[in-house]
Amino acid sequence: MINVHLIRSNEFNKDRYWEILNLLRKYPGVMQFKTQEDALYMQDDEIIHRSVDDDTFNRQYSLLHEFAKSNIEIDEVSWDNIFKNCSKYRRKYDIGIDEYVVLLTDYSNDRNWFAAADPKHNKNFFVHTNFWNYYINSDLRYPVAYLIATGILKQLLFKSYTDMSEHWHDVPIGCMMDFCRNKKEISLKLRTADICPSCLNLIKSRNVDHKLVQQVFTIMDGIREEMMHRERFVINRKPPRLEFKGLHKKIIFPELGDLEIALTPLEKTVYIFFYKHPEGVALNAIYEYEQEIRAIYESVCNTYDNDLVDQRVRDLISPLTNSISEKISRIKRKFIDKLGEDMARDFIIDGSNAELRFIPVTRLNQ
Ligand SMILES: [Zn+2]
């Protein structure tokens, strides 16, 4: 078993962190992805603030600058400090020297790399999580998960940076070992999900555990598949399948890597209710469905306190409060946040003011 502790530095969004961890855990194998609940903190004096006036910044981030078409400010931490903090974290949480620590961080680094291993061979590794929207037309989970999986493989494959640099492909060919000096080039290797014949031979000759190689291949393939699914949506407009999973009816998109829309029990109640009513229900008629709504809430909430359930449901459907409208707009925000405006459109609760409210996707198969 190879233990990989996935951690985040404090500024990196916790929900995104869990999404990446869950994506990787979908492909079990010899690499086991573990979590440490606590975030890592960079010290204030380790963070260097850069703006577009800076020459180095302009050179390193010219592409980014071109895309953003406005002033960009970045916070940067040196490789030395990133890895020093990983080692400190290791000691604090008693992580063994044979185990990997993979840090996800929004901070840029002094060499402007996507991801890198500790040159001191401490089995520390980081992946930069910011600015992906400028490089690649996809969800940041995919490139980040790809870099984690292939990063571990590279650490087992190469003895040093010198060794690795002798095997890089300077001109991208869609192999895991493409160097991607121009950051946009990374989308090619994500799309091919491939390792070229000469790199495969190298892996064989260096006796890397074939089970690990297999797992990395499965992750690469899975990521490719999910990315393609999203891209195809632009053309075929076929909404991904939504499932209500398990006891608490988690809202999951299996084709998007089990992407979850995390709703509170009351939000989930509202969503499931409208999902069951493709014909639509106007908000001013919602109180007529009290019993049905109560039954849904009871099935997704975690309480046996009947009075509390009654109270919550009554507050939810009361015409005197704005509660249900608020839930609907919060649900909408959560779907857009995860799926993007375009794909979310079929899943949000549609209709305005006194009109019938409904979820478009529930009408598609009728
Ligand atoms: Zn190659």
What does this structure look like?
The chain has helices at 14-25, 55-60, 62-68, 79-92, 132-135, 141-157, 161-165, 186-192, 197-205, 210-236, 265-275, 290-300, 306-317, 323-344, 361-364; strands at 2-8, 31-35, 48-51, 73-77, 100-105, 108-109, 115-117, 124-128, 243-245, 250-253, 259-261, 281-282, 356-357. With 366 residues, the protein is an alpha/beta fold. It has two domains: 2-236, Collagenase (Catalytic Domain); 243-364, no CATH class. The termini are far apart. The model has no long low-confidence stretch (mean pLDDT 89). The structure holds zinc ion (ZN). Zinc ion (ZN) is lined by residues 169, 175, 177, 195-196, 198-199.
Please sum up the structure shown.
This protein has 15 helices and 13 strands. With 366 residues, it is an alpha/beta fold. The protein has 2 domains: 235 residues, Collagenase (Catalytic Domain); 122 residues, no CATH class.
